[in-house]
Amino acid sequence: MKQLQRRILVLVCSSVLISAFLVISIAFSNFTRILHDNSKQIMQLMCIEKRQVIDEKLVNIEESVNTLYHFAVDQIRKSENLWQNDEKFEEHIRSMRTLVETTARYTDGVLSVYYRLDSSIRGPKQGVWLVKNDAGEFIEKEVTDISQYDEDDIEHVGWCYVPIANEKETWMNPYFNQNMGEEIISYVIPVIVEDQVIGIVGMDISTSLLYDNVKNVQVYEKGYAFLMDNEGRFVYHPEMEEYPIMEEFDRGHAYLYKKSLLSAENQSVEPYRWGGVDKRMTSQKLVNGMIFTVCVTEEEILAPQQKTLLDTIVVIIPTMALFIVATVYIIKAMVKLMYTDTMTRTGNKAAYTEASDILAKKIEDKENCNITVLVADINNLKKTNDTYGHYYGDILIQNGAEALKTVWGDKSIYRVGGDEFVILYPNAVKETVEKEIEALDKAIDELNKKNNRKALHLQMAIGMAEYDPETDKRYMDVFRRADSAMYENKKAKKEANM
Hints:
By secondary structure, this protein is of the alpha+beta class. The protein has helices at residues 2-14, 16-78, 86-105, 119-122, 154-166, 208-215, 246-250, 253-266, 298-301, 305-338, 349-364, 381-388, 390-408, 430-451, 475-497; strands at residues 110-117, 127-132, 138-140, 170-171, 175-177, 182-193, 196-206, 224-228, 234-236, 269-274, 277-285, 291-297, 371-378, 412-415, 420-426, 460-466.
């Protein structure tokens, strides 16, 4: 057993350097993961918070336009001959004008609000259009005559034709509105009653309402945010102004859009490379379909790594020392377990084989080997198993081991068979051993009194033999004499019980 322990310990010690390298490598990898996890939490929290702020503004716009839409539809459905009756029509327009003005006044960030009737209803310029002036007041302007423009003229009439073509509420991508002379975003709902296109209701907001919330994002020291429309085009990026030729900047939009879309759909943090720099991004989709993205460089994320790694090494060194100590302890425990009979907690056949091989080598080499061998056997174990079952047979074996340990607890006791034990007794005195054998019988009697069950009645035969250098050439010579003495004892006990 000790020989095996030494071999394993040598192996462990020789593996310490490799283990140290692996531990440090794993630690390095774990710290990188921790830093990435921390950055993920920071980035996603920032992204979600800003998305919620922007979405709140967009949802407010949607709710206001929905209010106008439902009011208009309700009036249209309740009024007969609305388009033909001048009085009813004028009343309808006045009602819509009042609601449009009120709604515009109480909706944050609105540039213009409109209720535009289709040209087939009452001509090309029917409806209401309010625009905010520099003083923050809403003034009414003449409704645009959309018949003067082509349907694909997004800059002039895209706000009208696109939602009608979609046949549903529509957020327009940012565009420069020639009528207003400003870059805007429009939310428009087509008014369709009984399959007839009546017109549209909508609001325009300045892109700055969105961009200002993107511009002020700062993650770590140099991290930033950018915004892409639902077609994958940049609408805001802090580096856009640094590119004199926008075509060069836009070459990367498809790549970034794919990454941003993937991040938004999976709620993940995606690695990417931009401008020769490794970065990470996380994205959220806005209610208008745009993608809001927060990004930061790998360099910034991993900046604490060097210091953290050094601090970790300081911790790892004593940890490894403890690891080695623990390993030694575990190895000893494992080896002991390997050489222990699980049922009786004595040495097992493997332990006995190793111990007897050592003795055999000493005897063959004619070394000084003062050893007494005792062989013990449980009587009638087979009968117990056959009569009462192996459960009671196992208890009988355990009781037999307990009796042997009561007398020779500090000696090497081995279970070498089902009911057979061997005791290796160094430097034994014959008279002492004989008294101990008598003590074994008393220990057995005490166990039998305690158990007081016929099924657990224990009887053991035992024999001993001392190594004689004159006659014993091998260890097996000593063992055979002890084994023969045991069988003689077994025979004598059986005859005594007849």
